[in-house]
Design goal:
heteropentamer; A alpha/beta; B alpha/beta; C mainly alpha; A: alpha/beta; six-stranded mixed sheet; three-stranded antiparallel sheet; 9 strands; B: alpha/beta; ten-stranded mixed sheet; about 40% helix; binds adenosine-5'-triphosphate; binds magnesium ion
Chain lengths: ~240, ~260, ~260, ~260, ~240
């Protein structure tokens, strides 16, 4: 890899839809290394923030600054959506697709996809049309499809929401390994236990605003903002 | 002059060649003026005109295919057949006249010349009056057009205008009625090469539909129109109709 | 019909004087000129036949949509034994040759036919009937195609809510209205440009059943290409205008993806 | 053309002897009989013109699909300034009057036209060209409609994977192939039944450019309604057969919802 | 209400897709009262079982017996799907739809829908097109849409997977209230804590088979089957 696309920073970024401000203004910096957890109540704007950084949402104001030109930046990221996009193909073809797009031979891509399906525990479902997968299986597939490209920066939007206990643990292990091998992760989750286990730092969002961006131990022990306190307590966040 | 049937209307099926001549644009307003009768024209193939008449869907027909007309009367579809006027057929072809038909003494010789040269010839091929005439002329030349190869004898199976368009596109010879040819707007490279043979005579006849079998037909209007068509008024209009200075139709009804 | 004067006016460029190669290009140019003339002078004959075209086609589209949209929807919702065959037949009927439809409708409406007593032959009503026959399978088929995907999306919910078949069809028609609009517009396009059937059942009678397409066919037969093309351009402009109006009224392309 | 003997054969029921009211119904009956005769006797003329119909239309559909499918897809994927206008125009072009298309192609291919040197007028190739012009907007428009929904589904993923526009279009075409098949079949239907344009550029020349629809128009003009209907029924059967074959080859309706 | 549609029992029910057996043979009885939790690893067949009882999947073998005629049975159930079906309407119209289908006046249905949106904490989003809702908001909407019909039997397929802590607590409260007010609930979840808090009994599924059907306290303290033990431990279920 020729230099990193990171660090990355947002300056007064805003996202609007039909005149309504969904996000921002948000200013936050992501250093080259770390496992950032984006937390906040439902509708706080977590998915919007992730998508905005990834380049899927048009910003109404502000800048997103990368350490590399746009084209390089676009190619070195992967995103696992909150509700996985299921292509009308088999599970294995779904996972192989990003590699085919990158110009890999069909056969090689298919083999690589199979190995990733094994790693997420979905080898049995390889030949199945992805449309028939169960909720948890879909999430595993989406994860394999993101990891297969070996991204430098990985976005995860509640990737374990529908997973059972052991699958969650295995995926967490996978993510931890990915992180230690150098992949930068930005992830949204509602599972506080999971956040504690994985995060190095936490961005806490509320009503589209960043309430705080704190190292993980500090955040869980002693959150700064009122909303974060309420959120961690499982109280309604006003 | 005729019975004035105020704001009356009737349907008349005519062949494309009659309509293309533009004569109807002259006659219809006069008929409206004189009889208060609105004549609605249905421009169709000869065969279709006969079928429309037989089914009673029109009140009268104006066609030019004598044998078919006689059969039509025999079958009781029309009480009688009234000859109104005639014009003539002309042989049209590429202006440089590769088959040299312009010099022919009569139409049979001209057709034979085309066959000898195997120069493209467009036939209506639609059993219309014009087509039947063309076929009769070939027979007069002792030829059977059904045996002609399609590389030069092209049966386009279409109306007069469409056939002329085809001939124009291919620079082919074609037999047309004079009126359609004069009115035709897409002459391209074509020119009138041969005309005047008596064999090219083209008689138009008017046939009112039998009100006995089809009680709903506007018999009164059909007869009013018939009387008008054979009147001196029609005679003046028809004989007076000119296109580019040429007389198109000659009135020959016997009042 | 006074349309021909336009041609003579526009024809002041002397066609015969041009070299052969440019003659046909000149025809197209003159077509544009005569279209322009017809429109700016608000030629009354043009307005009459354009309005009749619109009347016949919109009526036919409305009737065909009322039959075809629910039917296409019903086909998507209902599983039955000969479903596949029905769909194949429906698709095939999209290709109903207009001339054949015209003939059959003619035979039915003819004075000697079963519905002859109504005297509908050679009226705009007959033209509407023929167009309904042509457009209904087209609209039903495109609607079926569009609704099939929406039904796959809604299937579980609508079954779970114990909806009746009628409710399902109504819901799908309403929520799929954007796609169904395309079906109706496809029908409109097919109808407004159609000539084979309405020529036979309408008869192209001046001031009674003449519409844009039959007028075009007539002028083509006369070899009056410039006028025929002019009318053709008017027809295309009309179709574009209708599409734009419908699109902006329905805001289909504005409101983003539903 | 020997087709007419069939009519005479089938016509052994004496039409004229029947009462007027039943005459036209008898025509429809005789149409069915002559269709049957034509098919069981494998009438060589019928086979010739049917094959030519198939050749012209399938060629035109293939070419129009190659142009129209990616274009429709591109329109769904790409946002640009005049997108809405383009879509409205495309929809309107579905209604291109065949006669006008025929005229323009005629003028272009005519001996005195710009492409006259190729001598294509009154050949099947000219008919294919005219049909391509008619079918491409139709296929593109239906394809656009179908792909738009699929694109809404795939949008985030394909953007996220940093795909090129070409890759997006290829992916959508492949994954949406079922819906695109309907677009192509709609094009086939429209083409196989079309007569206005191919009559003008093909000329309906016996043994050269005569196809089913032009033969039907010819027989109608001749007043040979039964034979015209017979040919019409053959045409419809042909269209149904093609649809069934394509459906079962592609297993569209079997494999359930993807 | 004229007599209950419950109890309900399954006898040797099987579901097959393309020759493959997804579920069964399953024999299990659901008494009139209770809050049954269906648990099991990803792909075990939980969603399939719920849908089969609800009548959405065709059974390949076996019978499902109800205490009432089919038409009554169909009308008195509601289902919250794992991935909510979003109608192309506003959020409020989505929630009002089941009542409109039942013949309620549009206005009344709309008001009722609004009150339910308030109860699930989604009043703000009422006018929004449902398509733009966040993951958690969609789940809340689906829940409101199910509860608005006041069903006798309610199926829930992981209804809290994307909810934040306080929303989860509130929804649990709502479900508890519903249960005490007489609604029979059959629910699938991976959240063991949630299952402990809500369940009266647990059906444990593995590879399409019912491993055990035990009262909740017993299940969590002392699961009978090996797979259930592994599952509760967060181990891979073989
Ligand atoms: N196009 C839009 N118009 C109006 N509001 C929108 C639009 N898109 C999203 N929203 C709203 O913006 C808010 C933020 O959505 P987002 O998906 O980012 O939330 P989230 O933090 O990911 O929530 P969750 O935890 O439920 O997934 C939501 O309330 C959503 O309804
Ligand atoms: N049509 C089908 N063809 C083949 N396999 C299918 C089909 N439909 C579902 N399956 C498989 O059946 C299994 C059971 O699916 P189901 O959705 O019931 O699982 P689940 O227990 O709900 O899992 P999760 O916890 O992930 O939601 C899955 O492995 C799925 O891939
Ligand atoms: Mg989210
Ligand atoms: Mg499930």
């Amino acid at each position: 890899m020729v230099g990193s696309i990171l660090p990355l920073s947002l300056h007064q970024v805003e996202v609007r839809k039909r005149g309504k401000r969904l996000l921002g203004p948000v200013s936050v910096a992501f250093p080259s290394d770390g496992f950032t957890m984006v937390m906040g109540p439902n509708g706080a704007g977590k998915s919007t923030l992730l998508k905005t950084i990834h380049g899927l949402e048009r910003t109404a104001a502000g800048q997103i600054e990368w350490n590399a030109p746009q084209q390089v930046v676009r190619a070195r990221q992967a995103f696992v959506f909150q509700s996985p996009v299921i292509m009308r193909r088999t599970t294995r073809e779904n996972v192989a697709y990003p590699m085919i797009v990158r110009g890999m031979q069909k056969r090689a891509a298919s083999e690589l996809a199979q190995s990733w399906l094994e790693r997420v525990g979905l080898a049995d479902a390889a030949e199945r049309r992805a449309r028939v997968l169960s909720g948890g299986e879909r999430q595993k597939m989406a994860l394999a499809r993101a990891l297969i490209t070996d991204p430098e920066l990985l976005f995860l939007d509640e990737p374990c929401a529908n997973l059972d206990g052991s699958a969650t643990r295995e995926i967490e292990h996978l993510l931890q390994t990915a992180h230690t091998s150098g992949i930068r992760v930005i992830m949204a989750t509602h599972d506080i236990g999971q956040a504690r286990r994985l995060a190095t730092d936490v961005v806490f969002l509320h009503k589209g605003q960043v309430q705080e961006h704190t190292p993980a131990p500090e955040f869980f022990e002693n959150p700064q903002s009122g909303p974060a306190k309420a959120y961690l307590n499982g109280d309604i966040v006003e | 002059m005729g019975v004035a049937c105020a704001a009356d209307e009737m349907k008349l099926a005519v062949t494309t060649s009659f309509h293309n001549s533009g004569l109807s644009d002259v006659l219809l307003p006069e008929i409206k003026k004189d009889l208060g009768l609105e004549v609605q024209l249905l421009v169709v193939g000869t065969g279709q005109a006969l079928r429309l008449g037989a089914a009673g869907d029109v009140d009268a027909i104006l066609v030019h295919s004598k044998q078919a007309e006689l059969d039509f009367v025999t079958q009781g579809n029309a009480p009688h057949r009234t000859e109104i006027m005639y014009n003539d057929f002309v042989l049209v072809g590429p202006s440089d006249d590769p088959a040299a038909v312009a010099n022919a003494k009569h139409i049979v010789e001209a057709l034979t010349a085309i066959k000898t040269a195997s120069h493209p010839f467009v036939s209506r091929g639609d059993e219309s009056g014009t087509h039947k005439k063309e076929r009769a002329l070939w027979h007069a030349a002792n030829e059977d057009p059904t045996t002609f190869p399609s590389d030069w004898y092209m049966a386009v199976g279409a109306g007069m205008g469409a056939s002329l368009n085809a001939a124009s596109g291919m620079s082919a010879y074609i037999l047309s009625d004079r009126a359609s040819w004069l009115k035709f707007g897409n002459k391209g490279d074509l020119a009138l090469l041969f005309a005047g043979d008596e064999a090219l005579f083209n008689q138009y006849a008017y046939l009112p539909i039998n009100a006995q079998t089809h009680p709903h037909v506007n018999d009164k209007a059909a007869h009013a129109l018939e009387n008008w068509l054979i009147s001196d008024r029609a005679k003046d209009l028809i004989n007076g109709y000119r296109l580019n200075g040429e007389v198109l139709f000659i009135f020959n009804a016997k009042p | 019909m006074s349309l021909s004067w336009v041609f003579s006016n526009a024809g002041s460029l002397n066609v015969e004087a041009l070299t052969p190669k440019t003659v046909t290009m000149n025809d197209i140019l003159q077509g544009l000129i005569s279209a322009f003339h017809l429109i700016v002078t608000l030629d009354p004959d043009l307005i009459e036949i354009s309005l009749r075209s619109l009347y016949v086609t919109t009526s036919a589209v409305a009737i065909a949509a009322v039959i075809g949209l629910p039917f296409g929807c019903w086909l998507a919702v209902r599983r039955f034994r000969f479903r596949r065959l029905t769909i194949a037949v429906l698709n095939a009927l999209m290709g109903l040759p207009p001339v054949v439809v015209g003939l059959i409708v003619y035979l039915l409406l003819s004075r000697s036919g079963p519905f002859g007593v109504f005297g509908l032959l050679f009226t705009p009503t007959a033209m509407i009937i023929a167009q309904v026959v042509i457009l209904t399978p087209l609209i039903a088929s495109i609607a079926h195609q569009a609704i099939r995907d929406l039904w796959a999306e809604y299937h579980d919910l609508l079954i779970s809510l114990n909806t009746t078949r009628g409710q399902r069809i109504r819901t799908l028609l309403w929520d799929g209205r954007r796609a169904l609009l395309t079906a109706a517009l496809a029908g409109f396009g097919r109808g407004i440009g159609e000539v084979g059937a309405i020529m036979i059942v309408g008869g192209n009678i001046d001031h009674v059943t003449r519409v844009l397409t039959t007028a075009i066919a007539l002028e083509t037969g006369k070899g009056e290409f410039a006028l025929a093309l002019g009318l053709g351009f008017v027809l295309i402009l009309l179709a574009i205008a209708v599409n734009l109006v419908i699109h902006s009224l329905s805001k289909t392309e504005v409101s983003g993806r539903w």
